[in-house]
Each structure stands twice: as structure tokens, then as C-alpha cells.
Amino acid sequence: MSSVTETRALDFKAGEHPPGRRLQRPEVAWALAFLAPYLAVFAAFVVYPVGHGLWLARDPALYAELFADQRYLRTVVNTVLFVGLGVNLMMFAAVLLSGLFVRREWWVRALLAVYLLCWALPAVPAFVSFHWMLIGEQGLINGLLRELFGIEGPIWFNDGWLALGCNIVAYIWKWMPFWTVVFVAGRMAIPQEIYEAAAVDGATGVRRFLHVVFPLLANLYLVCTLLATLWTVGDFNTVYLVSIGAPARSSEVLATLGFHYAFDAAQPALGIAAAMSALPLVVPVALVLMRRLQAGAVQL
Amino acid sequence: MSVAVADARIATVSPASAERGRQARRVRRWKSVGAAGIAVLLLIWTLVPIYNIVMVALESKGDVFTNTIWPDAPSLDSFWIVITQGYWYLEHFWEQFGNSLYIGVGTVFFTLAIGSLASFAIGRMRIRYGWLLSNAALLTYVIPASFLAIPFYRIMQIYGLTDNLWSVIAAEVTFATPYAIFIFHQYGVSIPIELDEAARIDGASPGQVYWKIYLPLMAPALVAVGTYALLLAWNEYLYQFLLLSSKESMSVPVALAQFFNSDEAPWNYMMATAIVYSIPPVAIYYTFRRRMAAGLTMGGVKG
């Protein structure tokens, strides 16, 4: 019981001033000095770029131009699929796998150590490996298919949907271990007595997961899914390095298409507009997430 | 509470316990088989891309692929080439490695310094409108960094910092500090505020409280966030790619991805470079794993 109150105390809640306490004048100077570096970074590298970006992308004609571009529409579909499938498959698999990793056997610990390699490996080497593994006849995957099953694998990056699938798999490969660890921590925080009480009531296996574990993890699951959604919308590395947008930019997502507009096509305003066009999706998610984080929803 | 549970269990187990026991054993055996099956699949899933890196790095010829799942004549030559910078694409390898290190260390230092100062002012000195600042930090934390990339690049041109390692450090610090503030704030709540007040009554200035009380007590959180910042800088690609263009100022990931643009494709060198580049974060990662996990459970977020 005491552990619950302890984690409550860790809520990320700003502005909990005890009533009647005010800073003295010299203290205010100290506080401002302490805050100055952060305020400077925030103003120079967040406020100014955001403002500048909004100003560059202020022309409504840009958005008309975007919507007239066939590639843009395909990119929106790709982004929705990449985020929708990628995040949900990843989080669901992660929450199931966390059930395996709470076991205490030595081989489970060893497996966890190996599994975490995906996360520990820097993104560029990992995605470059995926690219090379799928590069068609010469790649490892098609080599394996041929040697083991005698099947000729497809040329993965010749079809937009297949290439998108490859991107999703690579993304899940890289980030699933991280979320698994988060859910393992979440499960560890569930008191053993709850499981015992559930066992007495006959809830084991799937029923225990559905009626005991999942409701207790639901809040954490929601917060993590929202956060993963935001990070996946902004993910640049996967698509840029795995499929490189192939074939003919039909597997791009908004983050890479915006980059392509800005730096390959020398239309920075259009590039920013492409990123801005995701804001109607991003802002509501960000607001819900912020409320949850402030309310201390991430108690583990 | 737990005594009552134990009593209840004894009461329910006693009737028809033999049948129950057999069933339970059967269920447990199936569960073990299932767990082992999942473990094998997971092992394959994890190791195939890593195996691919190692296999390509061991190829003796980079441009011709033998089309097998194991190189004909495996050799460590490509590692030697990378270490001795024996190929024109790799002639600045150690310089670039140094750049990556420089970016990493700079990011860690400034993230910890700026983050701990700000969290001290917000959480310990409890300034008014502190909540506004932590909200601003939180918003920076949840908004995807890549959306800021294009304006950020323009701003760096205006500041005259393109092709300068400090522009990358600025970018990494910008995106790591909100997480640092978040974690420090949460961790700081567990340190009694009375310590600060007692020190203040004894005549310590806020600077002394910060340096002599706050920082030492925050050591575990500092280690967790420092590791996080280092790995962030080591992992990040987009900003380094945008902001660093000359061979001398590039970091390793940017140089790695450059291989894609070359006509001749020395893939074995590329993969060997990738392995050398991956060793430090993997080592750091496994060293600080437990502390990282502590940071994660505190924030419940981000790696």
C-alpha cells in the first residue's frame, strides 16, 4: 500500500506551491539565473524556428499546391498506415511480450539481453542493414527463402505497398524492445497479491490478462501509445534509410516527403507546409498526452 | 491482507485437489512450451538483421555478392581497412568518430547542466509560473523533432552555424533538455525540501544549495539522463545529416549513409564501419542498463 502512495508522490505536477510561501527578492535573481540557460535555448532553438516555420508556410496557396500533388495524397495514406499499423502492432506485441519477460528463469533474462540489442544498436546501422537485407535477389532474406524453402522472394522495393510493409517491420524491430521494457516495468509494479486473489477467483491465463493485467496497465498503455504515435509520425530515419521512398517516392511518409520538397526540390516552404499538414493530427494527440502526463498518468 | 488471501487459497484448493493439480501441471507444461516457442521466434527476429551486418562485414569483396547466406571466404579485412582508414571513403573515419564523440559529450554536459538548473528553479525554488515552463518543456518533448528540421536548418544559416558541430549539439540539447527536466523534476520530489530549507537557514545561498545538496543527491537521475542524452546524440541522424556537410565535420552516421550515394558499393566496409560505430553505445547501454531502467520507470517514457 505504501508503495502506491509513494508513486503518487512522484506525480509530475507543476506549480504545487505550498500556500503562503513567496520567494524573497535575492532568491528571484538566483531563480532567474538558473532558468536563463533553458530560456535562452528555448527561445533560440524552439520558439524562433517554430515561428519562422509558421511564417514561411503561411501562404494558403502552398496547401493547394500540396493537395494537387498526387504524391502527397499517397504519402498521407502511407503515413496513416505507417503510424496506425506500426504503432498498434508494436504496442500490442510489446505488451504481450512483457508477459514473457517478467518470468524469472535464467534463459528469459538471457533472451532479454539479446532482444535489447535492437534498441542498443544505433538507428543508422540497423536500418542500413534492413535496406541491404531486402535489396532483392542479393539480399539475405531472399537468399534465405531460396536456400531454405526454394521460393523466389519478391523484389521488395519494387512495389510501394511492399516497401511500406518493410518500413513498418524495420520500425517495429528497432523500437519494440524499448516499449517492452516499459511494460515489463509496468507489470512488475502490479502487486503479487492481486494475481493471487485473481487466481482464487479462477482468473488465469487469457482471462487473467484480459480482466486483471490489461485494466491495470490500460493507463500506461494509452500514454505509451499516444507518445509512440507522435514519435512515429515524426520518424524520418526508417523510411529514409530502409526503402529510401522507393519505388518512385511511393513509400514516402510526411517527414521524408517534406525533407524531399525542401532539399531535393529546393522548395523549403512547401516542405514545411507538408510537415504542418500533419498538425491537425499531432496537436490533439499532444494535448491529450500532456494532460495525461501532468495528471501523473505514468505512475508505474 | 496477504494472510487472508492465503487462507482463502487453502479453503478453495482442498476439494478435488488431485484433479486440479494434474490440470495445473498440464497447463504449466504447455505454458513452458509456448514460452520456448515464442523465445525461439523472438531470437530469430532479433538476430537476422544483426547477422546480416556481421555477414556482409565479413565478405572479402564488397561489390560482388556471392548470393549465399554465408560468405565464401570470410575475413576480417574490412575491419582492418576501417581502423586504418585504408579506403578513400573512410579516410576521415577517426576524425568523424571523434566528431560523434564530441557531439555526444557536449550534448550530455549541456543537457545535464541546463536541465538540472532549470529543474532546481522550478521544483526546488518553486518559482511562480514554473508550471508554464514545465508545460513548454513537455510540449517540446512530445512534438516530433523532425517537423522542426527545415526551419531549424534555416535558423542555423541565420546564426552562421552551418557545418559546425555546435549547431548539432544545440539541436540535440534542445530535444534532450525537456526529458531531463521531466525526469529531474520527478526524481527531485523524493528528496525532502526540508534539506534545502535547513541549509538556507544556515546561510547557504541557492547556488550552494544547488551545488552541495541538490546535485549530489540527484546523482542517479543524472547518470540515467546522461546516458539517455549520449545515446540520443549517438542515434540521431536527421539533424547531423542536415547540419554537417563537409567530410571533416561529419559524424559517423552521416558518413555511413553517404555510402548509399556512391557508385561502387563497398558494402563490407560500410557494415564494418557500422559495427565499430555500434560498439560504444552497446557497451554503455549494457553497463548502465539498470540505471536506465530506473529512469524509464520514473518517467514511464522515452529511450
Number of E strands of chain B: 0
Strand portion of chain A, in percent? under 5%
Basic shape of chain A:
globular
Report helical residue fraction of chain A.
over 70%
Specify the CATH architecture of the largest domain in chain B. Orthogonal Bundle
Largest sheet of chain A, if any? none
- Order of helix and strand elements from N to C terminus of chain B: HHHHHHHHHHHHHH
Radius of gyration of chain B: 26 Å
- N-to-C order of helices and strands of chain A: HHHHHHHHHHHHHHH
Structural class of chain A: mainly alpha
Quick one: which chains have the greatest interface? A-B, 111 and 111 residues
Please describe what this structure looks like.
- Chain A has helices spanning 2-9, 25-56, 60-68, 70-101, 106-115, 117-120, 123-133, 140-149, 160-188, 192-200, 205-233, 237-241, 254-264, 268-276, 279-294.
- Chain A is mainly alpha-helical.
- The radius of gyration of chain A is 24 Å and the shape is globular.
- The two termini of chain A are 14 Å apart.
- Chain B folds into 2 domains: 19-79; 83-299, MetI-like fold.
- Chain B has helices at 2-13, 17-58, 77-83, 93-124, 130-142, 149-159, 165-188, 193-201, 206-217, 219-235, 238-243, 252-258, 267-287, 289-299.
- The interface between A and B is large, with 111 and 111 residues.
